[in-house]
Amino acid sequence: xxxxxxxxxxxxxxxxxxxxxxxxxxxxxxxxxxxxxxxxxxxxxxxxxxxxxxxxxxxxxxxxxxxxxxxxxxxxxxxxxxxxxxxxxxxxxxxxxxxxxxxxxxxxxxxxxxxxxxxxxxxxxxxxxxxxxxxxxxxxxxxxxxxxxxxxxxxxxxxxxxxxxxxxxxxxxx
Length: 174
Description:
By secondary structure, the chain is α/β, with parallel strands linked by helices. It has helices spanning 12-15, 33-43, 50-59, 75-88, 105-120, 132-138, 156-163; strands at residues 3-4, 7-8, 18-21, 93-97, 124-128, 142-145, 150-154. 40% of the residues lie in helices and 16% in strands. Helix 3 packs antiparallel against helix 4.
C-alpha cells in the first residue's frame, strides 16, 4: 500500500487528491487553451490560478497559443494541455496514462523533469506506459501488470534481475 505525503493512500485525504492526464484528452472543441484552464479553475474553485497556469503553459512552451482551439493543436500539444489541466489544481496524486505518446523529444524530457519534481515534492505519481525506458528514467518503483493481475513489483533494477537476460542475449555482457 502506498503513501501520499505521509498518509496512507487508502485514507480520505489522498483519495480526494487525484489528478488525471488521460491518454486521449477529451478537450472541448469550442474552448480555447486558456478556456480549458479557466474551466479547471472554476471546477475546483481555484483562486489566483492564472500565474500558475501561465508558468505551466510556458514550461510546456505553449504560452503563445492561449487562444488556440483543440483543432489547431497537434496530438502532442493536446497532451501537454491535458497535463497542464491536471497539474493546475495541484498534484497530491497524479495519474498519467501513456503520458509520453505523441510528445516530441524536448516535451518528453520536460515531462520527465516535471514527474521527477512532483515525486521529489512528495506527490504520488502513477504512470501507465509500455515504454520501459521511460519507466527506468522516472521511476523508483514499478509494477508489471498483464491483463490486470500483478506479475512483478520492485525497483527497475530488481525487475530487470527478476526478468533475467533477454532471449538470445550474450551471457558475458551481463
